[in-house]
Specification:
Radius of gyration: 21 Å
Structural class: mainly beta
Number of helices: 3
Distance between the termini: 25 Å
Length: 379
């Protein structure tokens, strides 16, 4: 009887409830870790990249990669030579990393990085790109064929694993000033349907000279105006791209595809009534509709899997402004129909300003924070 009772307890809803636990926390004296990107191609293999700063001065002390081969139970640090922007895992071993100045590659799951190409330098006539080079992210369909996206309307294609690149002409067609236009998000599903999303945000006369948190009264008065959102779409793995544009409020902070569905997250400035909105994309009809927004939840990233099963990673703004440089509580929501979103149980210690969702499926998920934490979905 005791065994039966114990077995039934294991099957109870409470025992099987999903919970986000802090699996790793960088806790070193007088330094802090900012995770820039996180990727898990499998349930065991993962990599995070970021920068370690001095807490008092804010000076960089080290660029680093963090590697795990046991699902995040243990992490090993690997020094990097340049500031990492993003990473892309093709499989358990092949990884590309975009830094401020270069593109790097390894076949050792995050060890033994080799520089394979230098970043294209910004056009001086258009002005410099933030922190150096143009490229922000890469995506590879196989070991040779991939794409790179970034500042100044940059979309490039490679057929040799990233050693040489050629421009994608369709990316230059939207009528926006390259100096203020960037492609920031890319996603492929099943190697055929692909989206590249970006936008154009020219400077405004009322742009603040100081960060919004230093002049909150002015920030809330600064109206959110539409920006030009640009989308490149392919249905044949990049053989042909089609560009569309639309004046929309906000900037796209996340795009995910899982045919026939897609999710896009839009972030807004302090004067807007909502900090963010999430839109569902129907990849069959091309229609989209808003499926989530809350005044006290700033959604930053999303994850989407067959089912559907969708996740949103959000931060609860700690003050009047939704973009204060003060970490807020991490909030994660899930849905099986894009209509009802349920808040999940998250470790009370989890706080952040920015979040990254990563994982191969809905049962194996992690969240990286800019406060040096990695959360794991556990049961």
């Amino acid at each position: 009887m005791r065994f039966a009772a114990f077995f039934l307890a294991l099957l109870s809803p409470v025992a099987l409830a999903e919970r986000w636990k802090v699996q790793y926390f960088y806790d070193q004296d007088r330094t802090q870790l900012v995770i820039e990107d996180l990727a898990f191609p499998s349930a065991q293999r993962g990599i995070a990249v970021g920068t370690i700063y001095e807490e008092v001065s804010g000076k960089k002390t080290q660029y680093t990669a963090m590697l795990t081969s046991d699902g995040g139970e243990h992490w090993a640090f690997e020094p990097l030579k340049e500031h990492p922007r993003s990473i892309f895992f093709l499989n358990d071993s092949m990884v590309w990393m975009v830094t401020d100045n270069s593109i790097w590659f390894t076949e050792e799951s995050g060890r033994g990085w080799k520089k394979i190409s230098d970043q294209k330098k910004p056009d001086k006539k258009l002005g410099p790109a933030p922190q150096g080079g143009l490229i922000l992210r890469v995506w590879f369909l196989d070991a040779k064929h991939g794409y790179a996206i970034g500042y100044q309307k940059t979309v490039l294609e490679t057929l040799d694993g990233g050693r040489t690149w050629i421009p994608v002409e369709e990316a230059e067609k939207p009528s926006s000033n390259p100096a203020y236009t960037a492609y920031t998000r890319i996603w492929f599903d099943r190697g055929k349907l692909g989206l590249i999303v970006g936008g154009s945000t020219p400077p405004r006369r009322d742009d603040a000279r100081l960060p919004s948190w230093m002049e909150p009264e002015e920030a809330v008065k600064r109206r959110q105006v539409p920006t030009l959102t640009i989308m490149l779409q392919t249905v044949n793995g990049g053989e042909k791209w089609t560009a569309t544009t639309a004046p929309l409020f906000g900037t796209v902070t996340s795009v995910r595809l899982s045919i026939p569905d897609g999710l896009a997250v839009f972030g807004f400035n302090e004067s807007f009534q909502w900090p963010s909105e999430v839109h569902h994309l129907d990849t069959v009809t091309g229609k989209s509709e808003r499926v989530y927004r809350e005044k006290d939840r700033r959604v930053i990233d999303s994850a989407l899997f067959t089912g559907p099963r969708a996740f949103l990673a959000a931060v609860e703004p700690p003050g009047r402004l939704n973009s204060l440089p003060i970490p807020g509580k991490v909030k994660i929501l899930e849905s099986a129909d894009f209509a009802v979103w349920n808040e999940m149980d998250v470790d009370y210690k989890a706080v952040a300003r920015s979040l990254i969702l990563a994982g191969p499926d809905a049962k194996n998920l992690w969240v990286g924070t800019d406060t040096g934490m990695i959360l794991h979905l556990s049961r």
